[in-house]
């Protein structure tokens, strides 16, 4: 995967980086860890300016975040309810849990959106509850931008610092992302097997 990411960044420059990060947000299995670290590596080689690369990557990711938010907001809780009532076991939730989640989100939503942008793999999905709960658009964009910029900066600076040792960094991040996916899959399976509707 590294080769075609590197090639697209080399050929497309900042626009290629923007499109890669947009695609990563829409389709989470594309790893931002590789994309932004590779951008940092290119900056270390002198083919990119690090601040501009960070800005381009963050902008692409934010466009994807907004797309997820608007899609979830259009769905809304009213349209979600029949899905929850019909497929509660596979969604591992019932409507009482949605109500509790909504109350929690009203109190802690901004922090959830900001810090959630720094979670590998899961970071792309943070926009969905924000849209469903109809978080105000401007705070959503503001706090998402803070988290997204922080994540992009951390990865790009890491790639820039490591330089030629990028392969070692990619391997470590790949292992971390895979472990997180395994944990999330195991947690979902446990939820399905033990799920019972609230009384």
From TrEMBL:
Residue ranges crossing the lipid bilayer per the database entry: 12-30, 50-71, 140-163, 169-190
Main location: membrane
Single GO cellular component term: plasma membrane
Membrane topology: Multi-pass membrane protein
Compartments in which it is found: Cell membrane
Superkingdom of this protein's organism: Bacteria
Domain VTT, residue spans: 30-159
Keyword match Cell division: no
Keyword entries, A-Z: Cell membrane, Membrane, Transmembrane, Transmembrane helix
PANTHER family, per the entry: ALKALINE PHOSPHATASE LIKE PROTEIN, UNDECAPRENYL PHOSPHATE TRANSPORTER A
Protein name: Membrane protein DedA, SNARE-associated domain
Taxonomic source organism: Rhizorhabdus histidinilytica
